[in-house]
Amino acid sequence: MSLPADYHMHTPLCRHAVGEPVEYAAQAVALGLKEIGFTDHSPMRRDDFDNWRMRADQLDDYVERVRHAQREHPSLIIRLGLEVDYLPGQEEWICELAARHPWDYFIGSVHYVSDSWAVDNPEMISRWKERDAFEVWSIYFDWLTRAAETGLFEIIGHADLPKKFGFIPQRDCTPLFEKFLRAAKKADVAIELNTAGLRKDCREIYPSPQIVRLAHQHGVPITFGSDAHAPGEVGMDLEQAVELAKSAGYTQRCQFVQRRRELVPI
Ligand SMILES: [Zn+2]
Ligand SMILES: [Zn+2]
């Protein structure tokens, strides 16, 4: 099976990934991938927002490191993207980021469910124990729905991230998923099948098979991503993600060039 484009990978600028883009690209070539895309964590307007992303003044450096990988590996298609944090109120900043470089795509991700709590941060896992899981998932999916509605993103990242540590609500979350997917369809936004979940406590691709099936029923297109934070993670488990997509009925995936979408066979 030829692997699909790996559209989610990081760089050391975010302070929790290792390896330069040129090394990720070399690994992609070694695996026979034809296309990849870099999507490091976007800067926030305030550099002291948290400590796991590039500073705003490093954005040009980020782009240059991706350009360097493109020059060193001319046979590999390398797209320029960003994984952009969505919190309500960030829209203007995201527009400013969009205007700074000729991006191929933005992945819109919700990590935060308040100004100070990222649900996937292992240092903040104790917060989960103080909260009702359904309430947290409800806020998360509300913000994810709003992220889709903004129209600022081509792709929504790891759509059920709150499952990372295994805090799964007892209540049925299907209405939350459906509302999000209707918004994604209406705004013409794709979702990614992100294999990083397989490497976390939840041991499952983001999003779950249930959400992937619902996404197909709603006509929401897909991309694939390893969410690599090291060169050795490039392309990881993408075969499994392709199997999941096909079992849900997908025959096509998206690719993006300068924020324009094309559908291609998986
Ligand atoms: Zn990261
Ligand atoms: Zn993320």
Question: Explain this structure to me?
Answer:
The radius of gyration is 17 Å and the shape is globular. Helix 5 packs parallel to helix 6. Helix 7 links the parallel strand 5 and strand 6. It has a 6-stranded parallel beta sheet with strand order 1-2-3-4-5-6. The chain has a two-stranded antiparallel ribbon with strand order 7-8. By secondary structure, it is α/β, with parallel strands linked by helices. The site of one zinc ion has 5 residues, from loops.
Given the helix and strand composition, which structural class is it? alpha/beta
Amount of helix:
25-40%
- Beta-strand percent range: 15-25%
* Sheet with most strands: 6 strands, parallel
Radius of gyration: 17 Å
Ligand roster: zinc ion
Euclidean distance between termini CA atoms: 10 Å
Described by the principal axes of the CA atoms, the overall outline is globular
The whole-number mean of residue pLDDT values reads: 97
The residue ranges in which pLDDT falls below 50 over 5 or more consecutive positions are none
Keywords:
binds zinc ion; globular; alpha/beta; 6-stranded parallel sheet; 266 residues; 8 helices; two-stranded antiparallel sheet
Fold topology:
Blueprint: H1 21-31, E1 35-41, H2 59-72, E2 77-85, H3 91-100, E3 105-109, H4 126-129, H5 133-150, E4 155-156, H6 174-187, E5 190-194, H7 209-218, E6 222-225, H8 238-247, E7 252-257, E8 260-265
Parallel strand pairs: 1-2, 2-3, 3-4, 4-5, 5-6
Antiparallel strand pairs: 7-8
Helix pairs in contact: 1-2, 5-6, 6-7
Bound molecules: zinc ion (ZN) (2 copies).
